[in-house]
Amino acid sequence: METFPDILWKVFGNVSKESKNSTKDFFMRTPTIRDVAQRAGVGVGTVSRVINGSPQVAAGTRQKVLEAIAELGFSPNKAARQLSGGKTSTVGVITPFLTYPSFVERLAGIQDVLDHHDYDLVLYSIRHPQQTQRKLREIGAQVAVDGLIVLSFLLQTFTHEELRRMNLKLPLIAVDHDPQDYYPHIFIDNVAGGRMAAEYLIRKGHRKIGFVGHVIESAFENESGFTSSQRRFKGMKDMLLEAGLPINDAWYQFGAPNEYSACEQALHILSVPNRPTAIFAAYDTLAFGVQAAIDKLGMKCPDDVAVIGFDDVKAASYMRLTTVNQQLFHSGELGAQYMLERLKTGSFKPDHWHVELALTVIERATA
What is the rounded distance in angstroms from the CA atom of residue 177 to the CA atom of residue 185? Predict the structure, then answer.
């Protein structure tokens, strides 16, 4: 019989594998018309003539080009658009995250829309603040994408004028982004989400509520807008104060944004006298760690300790986790849809500049 930690390991093993495979696929470079020409040993013009069905190509040469197209998985329809309009039929995504489950689900939403419109995706990763301006300059200079989606990353230090000076003239849209005025953004209210989680637990009869969150460890995380955990914590505390419930610092722990750290934080919370009867975890990933801690202590969830998470990643259903759904996949879909409309019409619609997604508590077995 599988123990809870065994199940947890299985889920995270699957998520990690999916994340790695997805990341690998996203990084694979899309073949270009020049790649086809090089593979076939002909010029770009010859490839263009084959694509357009010109009779002025020898049969043997045509066959070599067609074989190169098949071997490389090249898209002739996309090539025709590129040749006629100077477009790449590619959308870039810039982000500091690569393997977080929430990121993968947003990215899957983006990829789904782009696939349906025969667009490719190029992923740009930023790991520290010194990379940001250099990476943006590179993107602007390469002209490798038609538009850029900023995912889970706040370019709050860059105004339109500064982006123009960096020669980044691409249309931008932000997903999972704090509201601002420089480019369109799709966001959620994290404070409201924290209130929602606390209100749910209060309705279930809990009066002592703990929290496991993500501690901001670097200036990059703070400046780049990685404040969702803190805002959800604020929303929770605001709700507790309004309800006249106790605030106890011993019930709140912060650490690295992974299930292993969260397990340690939860073990600490549950070892204090007068421990909480429920714990709100800032992310589902952290909630899984809290569930593991409850199991390790021989407690029952939710009978001894209830748990609510935030995100509603795919693994949350498997883990029967009660959580706040923030429409991860749909947020990616919207970002891609709005970008493609912008590329088609030349401007973003007014109602696409400030899009707040609704939050919903998904009730399962843990709370």
Answer: 6
3-state SS, residue 319:
coil
List the domains of the chain with CATH numbers.
32-73 (1.10.260.40), 190-328 (3.40.50.2300)
Q: DSSP assignment, residue 29?
A: P
The arithmetic mean of pLDDT across residues 84-102, rounded, is 78
Tokens of 142: 């390469």
Residue 111 pLDDT grade (very low, low, confident, very high; cuts 50, 70, 90): very high
> Where are the extended beta strands (E) located within the chain?
90-95, 120-125, 147-151, 172-175, 185-187, 209-214, 252-255, 278-281, 306-311, 322-325, 354-356, 360-362
* Gyration radius of the chain over CA positions: 24
Give the separation between CA 123 and CA 151, rounded to whole angstroms: 10
Strands (DSSP E) contained in 110-248 are 120-125, 147-151, 172-175, 185-187, 209-214
Residues 198 and 280: beta-carbon distance below 8 Å: yes
Half-sphere exposure of 87 (CA within 13 A, CB side): 18
Q: How large is the average pLDDT for residues 170-194? A: 87
Rounded Cα distance, 261 and 214, in Å = 9
Find the Cα–Cα–Cα–Cα dihedral 287, 293, 296, 298, rounded to 10°.
Answer: -90
Give the tens place of pLDDT for each residue, 254-273.
999 899 999 999 999 999 99
